[in-house]
Design a protein that fits this description.
Layout: E1 5-9, H1 14-24, E2 28-34, H2 53-57, E3 63-67, H3 72-85, E4 87-90, H4 100-104, E5 111-116, H5 126-131, H6 154-177, E6 181-186, H7 187-197, H8 200-207, E7 222-227, E8 233-238, H9 241-250, H10 254-264, H11 271-276, H12 278-290, H13 294-302, E9 307-310, H14 314-318, H15 321-324, E10 329-334, E11 338-343, E12 348-349, E13 352-353, H16 366-374, H17 378-386, E14 390-391
Parallel strand pairs: 1-2, 1-4, 2-3, 4-5, 5-6
Antiparallel strand pairs: 3-14, 7-8, 8-9, 10-11, 12-13
Helix pairs in contact: 1-6, 3-16, 6-7
C-alpha cells in the first residue's frame, strides 16, 4: 500500500486497529487527535510514568497530528488534510464537518469509512454489544445463573479487520472506476453477523433452542479442561475419531470407553455422540489426569494426535519461545514505553514478516504533515501553534 495516504480520527480499538493494520501493509496513516489526546490516550495498562501501553500498542507505524478539533480553523485544517489524502477512517460519528457529505462535495472520489455503534445510530461499544448478542449467557460454568463477559474485545477486533478489508476493497474499486465510497460499519452488525454465521442465531431460528452453558466444554464435539495432580490445567480436544481413540489409549481407558459405548448403544466415532455422553467420558479421563503430573501429561499428549495445550498466564506466554523465538516478534524500543518484543503482521509474505515500527508521540508529526502535505511554511505553522490551533 505504499503511496496510499489515510487519515484516521478515532479512539479505542476498532478503527485504531484498522489504521495500524493498513500502516503495517505500507500505507501512510495520519492519526489526528485533539490537543491533549483522545479518550483512549491514557487508557490502561500504563507504565510507571503514566504512559499508555495500550495506546502505543494500537498506533504503531502511524504519524500523529494534534489539532484543536473544536475550533473552526482546526476543523478546516483537518478537512484539508483529509481531502489531500483521499481516505478517512473514523469512529467519531456525527461530526458534520468530517462527514462523507461535507467532504465528498470537494473530493468526489473520497473513501470515507465510519464505524458506528449500531445500525440505527444508537451507541454501542464491544462490551454492550456483546451483552446484547447472547454470548454472555452461554459463557461461564455450567449451571451458573447469570451473564459472564469474556475479556477479549472480539467485536472490536473483528470490526477493525473488517474496516481494513473495506478500505482495501474501496481502493480497488476507486482504481477501477475513479469513484469513491461511503462505508458505514456498525459494530453491532459485526457481532450479529458473526453470531449468525457460526450458527448461534440460526440454531435458535431453525430449532427454537438456545445454546446451553457448558463451562469449558465444546459444543457439539468432545473437548474440555482437565487438572493434573500438581494443579496444572490442560485443554484437551478430540475433533476426530482418531483423536478420540488416541485419547482413550493414552489414558488407558479404551476398554472402559468401549464398555460405556456398548451399554449406551453409542458410537463414539461420531462427534455428536461423544458430545452427548461427555459427562461420563469426562469422569474417565479426569481420573487419569488427576493421577499424573503436568510433565507426565505433556509427555503423553505430545506423542499422540490429541489436540491439547496447557493453560498459561500472559506472563508465561510473554516469556515463552512462542514469543521469544517467534519471527512474528522483533525487538522494539518504544519511546515512553521501553524496549520489548512487538509483533508485526501475523502473516508472513514470501517467508518474511513485516516488523512493527514505533508508535508516535502525540502530535509528533503535526508540523511535518502541514509542511509536506499542505505545503505550509514554517511561519504559517508557527502561527497555528501560537494560536493553539495545533500542537507538536
Amino acid at each position: 500500500m505504499a503511496g496510499v495516504c489515510i487519515v484516521e480520527i478515532s479512539s479505542f480499538v476498532a478503527v485504531p486497529l484498522a489504521g495500524m493494520t493498513l500502516a503495517a501493509l505500507g500505507a501512510e496513516v495520519i492519526r489526528i487527535d485533539p490537543i491533549g489526546g483522545a479518550a483512549d490516550y491514557r487508557r490502561w495498562p500504563l507504565t510507571d510514568t503514566g504512559d499508555s501501553i495500550y495506546w502505543a500498542g494500537l498506533n504503531k507505524g502511524k504519524q500523529s497530528m494534534a489539532v484543536n478539533m473544536r475550533s473552526d480553523q482546526g476543523q478546516r485544517l483537518i478537512q484539508r488534510v483529509i481531502l489531500d489524502a483521499g481516505i478517512l477512517i473514523t469512529n467519531v460519528a456525527g461530526r458534520q464537518w468530517h462527514s462523507h457529505a461535507a467532504l465528498s462535495a470537494h473530493r468526489p472520489d473520497l473513501i470515507h469509512l465510519e464505524v458506528v455503534g449500531r445500525a440505527d445510530g444508537s451507541t454501542g461499544v464491544d462490551y454492550t454489544v456483546n451483552a446484547a448478542t447472547g454470548f454472555p449467557m452461554v459463557t461461564g460454568p455450567a449451571g451458573y445463573d447469570g451473564p459472564v463477559n469474556h475479556v477479549m474485545p472480539s467485536w472490536d477486533v473483528s470490526c477493525g479487520l473488517y474496516a481494513a478489508l473495506s478500505v482495501l476493497t474501496a481502493l480497488r474499486h476507486r482504481d477501477a472506476t475513479g469513484r469513491g465510497s461511503a462505508i458505514r460499519l456498525p459494530l453491532d452488525d459485526v457481532a450479529l453477523a458473526t453470531a449468525a454465521n457460526l450458527g448461534f442465531l440460526t440454531e435458535a431460528m431453525i430449532n427454537g433452542t438456545s445454546r446451553p452453558r457448558l463451562g469449558n466444554a465444546i459444543y457439539g464435539q468432545y473437548g474440555r479442561d482437565f487438572r493434573t495432580s500438581d494443579g496444572a490445567n490442560f485443554m484437551v480436544v478430540a475433533l476426530t475419531a482418531r483423536h478420540f481413540r488416541d485419547l482413550t489409549d493414552l489414558t488407558g481407558t479404551t476398554e472402559a470407553v468401549a464398555a460405556v459405548a456398548q451399554t449406551l448403544g453409542a458410537d463414539f466415532d461420531d462427534e455428536g455422540q461423544r458430545y452427548q455422553h461427555r459427562d461420563i467420558l469426562d469422569g474417565l479421563f479426569a481420573a487419569w489426569f488427576a493421577r499424573h503430573t503436568a510433565d507426565q501429561a505433556e509427555a503423553a499428549l505430545s506423542v499422540s494426535s490429541v489436540l491439547w495445550e496447557r493453560y498459561r498466564s500472559f506472563a508465561e506466554v510473554a516469556a515463552s519461545p512462542r514469543v521469544t523465538a517467534n519471527a512474528l516478534f522483533a525487538p522494539l524500543d518504544q519511546p515512553r514505553i521501553g524496549p520489548h518484543l512487538a509483533p508485526g503482521l501475523p502473516m508472513s509474505v514470501d517467508g518474511a514478516h513485516t516488523p512493527a515500527t514505533v508508535a508516535p508521540a502525540l502530535g509528533e508529526h503535526t508540523a511535518a504533515v502541514l509542511a509536506q502535505r499542505l505545503g505550509m511554511s514554517a511561519a504559517e505553522i508557527a502561527k497555528l501553534i501560537e494560536s493553539a490551533t495545533v500542537a507538536t
